[in-house]
Amino acid sequence: MNIVADMLLREPAPVAIWGALILLALPALMVLASPVGLRRPRLALLHTARSVRALREERRRRVREAEEVLRYAGELHVAAERAERGAERWQEHCADAEARVKQTWLDWQDGQSRLERALSAAAFRNPYTTPSPSEYASRERWLHQAVSAAAERGELPASAVADALAGRGWDATLHPFDQELAVLVASAAYLRAEHHRSMAAEDAAWHDAYLARRTADDLRREAAAATVEALSVRHLVQAGTASPHAHPAVAIRTA
């Protein structure tokens, strides 16, 4: 090791001084290196100043673009996470809709079985007799109670109770056995319609879940691509030469 190298290693201050002198002398060296600079030094200095200013502007532009890339990648990650949570909720909704289909199927079959047993017993009912006014009133009360009980069990809609009270679609003069048969027929039809509605709701839920999953997957892929691009330009922001309008650096997930 020669004397100069040994001195530079032991005392770094001269290195800093030399570096500062070189930076200060760089514009003059650029002027002297140009033939135009020798003839017209003032014009050469102006040209050199413009070149330095253009380099600085280019640097600021690249930093701003890098900041936008980082910000966009961060926003994509947030959107991808939200879409993933939404897809999971839709999956849970599909499971609930599927359970609803199974339950409505069982309810419909149970109502249909009760109706078939009542139809089988219809052949053994008592012969028709002319009811008295008090019996008519009793039949009306029985019908209202039967329809209300079926609605409370979910075998008839709530509107059926109002219809029975108003005498719309229900014959309160029928024998209680015939009234029970009418309630069972209406219940079986309502439960069948409920099952079909639940099947339609399940199909719609699966369709929406598919769209939500596809959206989440697309956003995840876009976020991954944006992360790769962000990692390639993050050093521009971290270099400490950000623009005056720079925003805080956006955290980019690499996992």
Structure commentary:
The chain has 255 residues and is mainly alpha-helical. 81% of the residues lie in helices and 0% in strands. The radius of gyration is 43 Å and the shape is rod-shaped. The two termini are 48 Å apart.
Structure in a nutshell:
With 255 residues, the protein is mostly helical. It has helices spanning 3-10, 13-33, 35-39, 41-121, 133-152, 158-166, 176-238.
Describe the secondary-structure layout.
Layout (H helix, E strand, L loop, with lengths): L2 H8 L2 H21 L1 H5 L1 H81 L11 H20 L5 H9 L9 H63 L17
Helix pairs in contact: 2-4, 4-7, 5-6, 5-7
Number of strands: 0
Number of helices: 7
Q: What is the overall shape? A: rod-shaped
Radius of gyration: 43 Å
SSE order, one letter for each helix or strand: HHHHHHH
Q: Key features?
A:
rod-shaped, mainly alpha, 255 residues
